[in-house]
C-alpha cells in the first residue's frame, strides 16, 4: 500500500448515539449531538467547525444511524450529501472506524484519518488543532495508531486510562510516547493512584492513523469480517457499495475500537493533549458549562430556587421551574417530560427509558 504524493487528511466524526443519559431532552429523533448542551450551537456543529482547520468540508465525514442521517444533513449543510454515511445498524465504534477507513482508503490509499466523537467539549480550538496536526505527523512517521491522551485533572472513575512508556522523537511540538497498556474504567482507589503516577492519560476516544495502517490492524485482529471489509473497499463509489456495507454489518461483531484493535496492537502511540477537554456524558458534566449561583447550583433557563444547594436545574420549556429545600438533586424539564433524580444517579438515567412509551423516547 504505497502512500500517494500529497495524501489527504480526512476527519471521521462518529455520531450514531442517542445520548440516553440526557433524557428527557435527548430523544431518538433529537439525539444528544444535535442539542445545544454546552452553548448556543449544537455539539455536532461545534465538532465540525473545530475540524475545518484540519480538513475541508469534502473531507469531513459523519458516520451515523439511518434515522439520524437526514437530520444531520440539515444541520451540517456544507458537507456533500454522501459524506453523511448511515450505518445499517449500531455495532459500536470498531465497525464505524473500519467503514470510514475503507471508504477513505479507496479515495486515497495514503490518506490519514482523524477519528473523533460528535459530543466532546473542547474550547481551546487552536491548541486542539496543533495537537491533531502533530498526531498526523506522528502517524505518518511511525506508521502508528495514534490516540490522543488527556492529562488527568483529578481521579476520574468514568474514563479509561492509557500508559505512555517510551518517548518518541518526531517533528512535532506535542510530546508523544509508545503505549504500554490500556486500563478500563478503574475504581476510585486505583484512579487516585493513576492520577498521581507519571505517564498516565485519560483515554479521550480520539484517534489518528493512516487508513492503510488501521486496515492492516482490522485484517489482523478482526479476520472473521475482513473479506466483507475488503468488499467495501472494492465496491466503494459503485452501485454495489451499499450492499457491501450491509453485508459487512451482518458479519461484524459489536465491539469498540479500543477492545478490537488499540489494546492489542503493538504500534500504538499516545500524544499528550495540551487543550481542555470534557466528555459531556451526563447532566453533571454538561452543567459545568452553565451559570453557577452562590450555593453551587448550576442553572439553565427560567428557574427560582429557595433553600437549595448543589443542584442542577435545567428548564428547557416555557414557564418557571421552582425548587425548594433540596440538595444534590437534578431537575430537567422539557415541554412533555420532567426528570428528577439524585445527583449521584445521573449515570442511571438511561435505565428509565426501557419502560417508557415510544413517544417519550
Q: Low-confidence spans: pLDDT under 50, at least 5 residues?
A: 1-5
The percent range for strand residues is 15-25%
| Structural class computed from helices and strand pairing | alpha/beta
Instruction: Quote the CATH topology of the largest domain.
Output: Spore Coat Polysaccharide Biosynthesis Protein SpsA, Chain A
Helical fraction: 25-40%
Shape: globular
Average pLDDT works out at 94
Which series of helices and strands comes N to C? Answer: EHEHEHEEHEEEHEHHHHEEHEEEEEE
What kind of sheet is the major sheet?
5 strands, mixed, barrel
Question: Got a strand count?
Answer: 17
**Radius of gyration of CA atoms, rounded to a whole number:** 21 Å
Regarding CATH, which class of the largest domain? Alpha Beta
CATH superfamily of the largest domain: Spore Coat Polysaccharide Biosynthesis Protein SpsA, Chain A
Secondary-structure topology with pairs:
Layout: E1 9-14, H1 43-51, E2 60-65, H2 69-75, E3 84-87, H3 93-107, E4 112-117, E5 120-121, H4 125-142, E6 145-150, E7 161-167, E8 176-183, H5 188-196, E9 200-210, H6 211-221, H7 226-235, H8 241-251, H9 257-262, E10 268-273, E11 278-279, H10 283-287, E12 298-300, E13 303-306, E14 312-315, E15 321-324, E16 329-333, E17 338-342
Parallel strand pairs: 1-2, 1-4, 2-3, 6-10, 12-14, 13-15, 14-16
Antiparallel strand pairs: 4-9, 5-11, 6-9, 7-8, 7-9, 8-10, 16-17
Helix pairs in contact: 3-6, 3-7, 7-8
